[in-house]
């Protein structure tokens, strides 16, 4: 797939996958503990298998045990924290309900961080109205899709 | 649902939904044009219907036409741009492939913005190792789930 958004969804876009990663970021490692999310055994098993194959989790024996496995996030898996935090931000603003979730806290001050657009070039946060969407890598020539506007 | 991440996924977590929103952010408004993503008619129709019900899109008559509808992102829908940008960042870093996608550009300088963790309190970007995940709103008492660590 040519679009990195689509490729990301191909890895973690199935229902439950990001909630499993959310719990893992909070420290969950064992199959039994992931079940607390409310996911059925067979689905959890299938999701974890795929997430291991995709390199999001590493499956390994629990320390000091030869009969129990745990699922540990890789660096690739931990990298999803910002995606989850962005979903949380959006959900907080636009949906109704409680706030039992994962938050990311700034160690220096203890406050929750926000997920924002940031310009490395200017070295500062970019406000919403300072940001414009742009289509990149559009195929040229006949048959290519013409966007409106 | 008590978790805003789960609620967000309940709204836009079905396969294709975020890709439809991605195209909409780039200016696509017509059913025929959303099809360029490669989605089947019946799925596209079902997804758009749900996204309208959820207030992500507004369905309205095209200007000057009484026979054609278009799907316009609401403010709630446009708010997903950061989620999509976070998925794009992760996909660029961790998956292989081209880069035909949506990027968010800083109007002031023309460079692509990054999606980062930002501390409003300190007024600056928080680096990855400065951010700690924290579980919030855990139910207390018997039957509550004990996280590892």
Written description of the protein model:
The structure is a homodimer of 149-residue chains. Chain A is an alpha+beta fold and 149 residues long. Chain A has a single domain, classed as Arc Repressor Mutant, subunit A. The first copy, chain A, contains six helices and six strands, in the order ααααββααββββ. Chain A is globular and about 55 Å long. At the A-B interface, helix 1, helix 2, helix 6, strand 3 and strand 4 of A face helix 1, helix 2, helix 6, strand 3 and strand 4 of B.
- Pattern of helices and strands of chain A: HHHHEEHHEEEE
Report how far the terminal alpha carbons of chain A are from each other.
25 Å
Report the uncertain regions of chain A: 140-149
Number of strands of chain A: 6
State the major sheet of chain A. Answer: 2 strands, antiparallel
| Tally of alpha and pi helices of chain A | 6
CATH architecture of chain A: Orthogonal Bundle
CATH class of chain A: Mainly Alpha
Global structural class of chain A = alpha+beta
CATH topology of chain A: Arc Repressor Mutant, subunit A
Any chance you could write out the topology, listing elements then pairs?
Two copies of one chain form a homodimer.
Chain A: H1 4-12, H2 17-25, H3 31-34, H4 41-53, E1 57-61, E2 69-73, H5 75-78, H6 81-94, E3 101-106, E4 114-119, E5 124-125, E6 131-136
Antiparallel strand pairs in A: 1-2, 4-5
